[in-house]
Design a protein that fits this description.
Layout: E1 28-31, E2 43-45, E3 49-53, E4 60-71, E5 78-82, E6 89-93, E7 96-98, E8 105-112, E9 117-124, E10 128-137, E11 143-152, E12 156-165, E13 171-182, E14 185-195, E15 202-211, E16 222-227, E17 230-239, E18 244-255, H1 262-276, H2 278-292, E19 297-300, H3 303-318, H4 344-357, H5 359-370, H6 373-382, H7 408-411, H8 414-430, H9 433-454, E20 456-457, E21 463-464, H10 482-502, H11 508-516, H12 556-566, H13 577-587, H14 591-602, E22 606-607, E23 612-613, H15 625-639, E24 642-645, E25 648-651, E26 662-668, E27 673-677
Antiparallel strand pairs: 1-8, 2-3, 3-4, 4-5, 6-7, 6-12, 8-9, 9-10, 10-11, 11-18, 12-17, 13-14, 14-15, 15-18, 16-17, 19-26, 20-21, 22-23, 24-25, 26-27
Length: 678
């Protein structure tokens, strides 16, 4: 069992420049002109705990816990769970509770992407200035900090409370209060447990105040029980005019999916964080993020794009971590979007950039799939195929989690090839033969066996793959989809190559099948999306993926012809399609067109006040980390020219957009190399 913990503190930070300002700071995004009716929160996360911001003072919108799934409500399938909201607080000043954005003045929030924290500041009338900062600590996988600093403008009396709330989806809530009193420290523990919607999981959370005053002089803490779903700890304090007062809340959250004894472990982890102390926790958190940012994308000459790229990379780094077996949802840890499931979004769109910049994190994403290989084999068996057939939507078990009304579940089979290609590319980048033998080969072998059983053998050149949902998901139950066929072909070829590297026998049928899978063409040579395709609008990239990342179409004239045909046919689909256009135009030596496609791919999708990405230009469901993954590939594999080959990472000759002086990619691959384009 793996353990999940969350720890909270409140910490003050001063951020100088901002997203909306004209300054040159490319690491912060400042929101100080906020429309409360047009507010889309930003996420602070560490790969395990996602904290989604709110516009209401001392509130967060959601706390999402990675790896915790249960069946409830939506689609009769497993959904990622919110955990207890143990970050919410309230503050009363002279008997008036601050609980609404409209009560305060000079409200602003600043996201510091370099050290992954969100600071909120405001004034309350002429009485007090407030500053508080959320962290989800990188150094402790399940830990978060919130630190509060209050500056009194007049003599005032304050009451502050830390509130433990259970989301509506949880049941059988039990609340506890315990006090640990030692000669040198007193810890007051506010703890709750509950069962997940079906009772499958036991969930627990605990928190405590942390004061700066020496033991014995800290303010008395009292416990209040409001109802079964909420209880709190609070203290009172008199502040003199000009006095600056600081305190913190520290907490933990865990479930039986991560630890056999979540109630006790939650309290142990809270105690651990309390005794570690704020300064050490923040120091180690910052050091961990400094290490991550050694792998960076640096644009000279375009600060706006640089800040936007940092935001994309910040979110991708925030939603994953090494040393786990968790995958990536299209919405990361920003909420419950897409039920928290893993799709092809992981392996095709988000994984490639992480593979280049953070190979150990990429390994964690593959570990998720490797540990569910047996479930994929059973899935193939139940559909009458051999080998392993990975589910279109995957959660905790590795079984199919697509709602039954969506045809993508039983028919969008290219996901199996996408995972195999990701496994092969991991070997290519790392050249790790031990990993290839132990984990990569089983994935490649079983998926190759799947495709050998999946094709329908209708004569030479016609090993057809019929009745699939295409990568263009508007094309349902079609035959010989271009992307599905080309991905299956690559899967089979990579399995043969892996066998050769490892000195293992390759099934001769894999090569026979790969050589006979058709890639259909129109009479003028344009690649045909599927057998019956006749120029319809498409949802997202399909044919153009054959040039990148599949390298099935390699002739520049053919790549350009496919681009010219399909680019005008893209509807308002997901954000990542334009990233492929940007990569291809860049590799064709057309940097102006590449830059135009790149910007079109995400700027219409940015939502206020932090510029978080929605899935589509008219959608409002951020954060769409799939789109960020695509745009980061445009930077790395397009503008920087990085390419993954069987011999490792190479760099193609490319030209930069005219407004960029240079592009530098640091910390690439296992050797952490630097690549530059001028």
């Amino acid at each position: 069992m793996k353990k999940i913990t969350v720890v909270l503190f409140l910490f003050t930070i001063t951020c100088s420049s901002a997203f909306a300002q004209s300054g040159q700071d490319v690491w912060t995004i400042k929101a100080d002109k906020i429309d409360p009716y047009n507010y889309y929160g930003v996420t602070v996360a560490n790969g395990m705990v996602g904290i989604v911001s709110s516009i209401e003072p001392f509130k967060v919108k959601d706390v999402v816990l990675n790896g915790a799934f249960d069946l409830y409500g939506r689609g009769r399938v497993s959904n990622i769970l919110k955990t207890f909201n143990f970050l919410n607080m309230y503050l009363e000043v002279d008997g008036t509770r601050i609980e609404n954005f409209k009560q305060v003045q000079h409200f602003q929030q600043v996201l510091d992407m370099k050290h992954a924290n969100l600071n909120t500041g405001f004034d309350f009338n002429d009485k007090i200035s407030v500053s508080y900062t959320y962290y989800s600590l990188r150094n402790l996988p399940y830990t978060a900090l919130v630190d509060v600093t209050l500056t009194a403008k007049k003599d005032i009396d304050i009451t502050s409370a830390s509130v433990m709330e259970a989301p509506d989806m949880l049941k059988d809530v039990q609340n506890y209060y315990n006090e640990i009193d030692r000669p040198h420290v007193r810890i007051s523990l506010l703890t709750s447990t509950a069962k997940s919607p079906t009772g499958k999981l036991l969930m627990a959370a605990s928190n405590s105040f942390l004061f700066d005053e020496p033991h014995g002089s800290e303010p008395p803490v009292t416990h209040e029980m409001w109802d079964n779903n909420m209880h709190l700890l609070k203290f009172k304090k008199h502040l003199k005019a000009g006095e600056v007062y600081h305190f913190a809340v520290v907490g933990s959250a865990i479930t039986s999916a991560h630890d056999d004894d979540p109630l006790n472990e939650a309290e142990r982890l809270t105690i651990f964080a309390t005794l570690e102390g704020r300064n050490r926790l923040v120091q180690f958190h910052n050091t961990a993020w400094d290490s991550l940012w050694k792998s960076d994308i640096i644009i000279d000459g375009d600060d706006t794009t640089q800040r936007e790229i940092h935001s994309m990379l910040y979110h991708l780094y925030s939603f994953v971590r090494e040393g786990t077996a968790y995958s990536l949802s299209p919405m990361g840890l920003s909420g419950l979007g897409y039920n928290g499931h893993a799709f092809w979004d992981t392996e095709l769109w988000m994984y490639p950039s992480l593979l280049l910049l953070q190979p150990k994190i990429a390994e964690s994403l593959l570990e998720y799939r490797y540990q569910r290989l047996e479930a994929a084999k059973h899935n193939a068996f139940s559909h009458g195929y051999k080998g392993a057939m990975f589910p279109w939507e995957s959660a905790a078990s590795g079984n199919e989690e697509t709602p039954v009304w969506a045809l993508s579940g039983p028919f969008e089979h290219h996901i199996t090839a996408d995972i195999a290609i990701a496994a092969w590319n991991y070997y290519c980048v790392t050249q790790d033969k031990s990993w290839l033998r132990e984990k990569g080969w089983p994935i490649l072998k079983e998926t190759a066996d799947f495709w050998a059983s999946r094709v329908e053998r209708n004569g030479p050149g016609h090993y057809d793959i019929k009745n699939v949902v295409a990568a263009d998901e508007w094309a349902e139950n079609v035959d010989n989809n271009a992307f599905t066929n080309a991905a299956a072909k690559a899967n089979l070829q990579y399995a043969v190559k892996a066998a050769g590297i490892l000195g293992l026998p390759a099934d001769a049928d894999w090569t026979d099948v790969a050589n006979n899978i058709p890639i259909l063409k129109f009479d003028d040579g344009v690649t045909k999306e599927y057998a019956a395709y006749n120029g319809e609008k498409i949802k997202q990239a399909d044919v153009n993926l054959l040039a990148y990342p599949l390298h099935e179409v390699t002739d520049p004239a053919a790549i350009e012809k496919d681009l010219a045909y399909y680019e005008p046919r893209v509807g308002e689909g997901p954000a990542m399609t334009h990233a492929i256009f940007a990569i291809l135009y860049s590799r064709l030596g057309m940097p102006a067109k590449a830059y135009k496609s790149f910007k079109e791919g995400y700027t219409p999708n940015m939502r206020p006040p932090f510029g978080v990405l929605a899935e589509t230009a008219s959608g409002n469901n951020p954060y769409f980390s799939t789109g960020a993954g695509g745009m980061l590939q445009a930077m790395l594999n397009g503008f920087a020219g990085l390419d993954i080959t069987s011999a490792g990472i190479t760099q193609l000759k490319v030209k930069l957009p005219s407004n960029w002086k240079s592009l530098t990619i640091t910390g690439v691959g296992v050797s952490k190399k630097t690549y530059m384009v001028k």
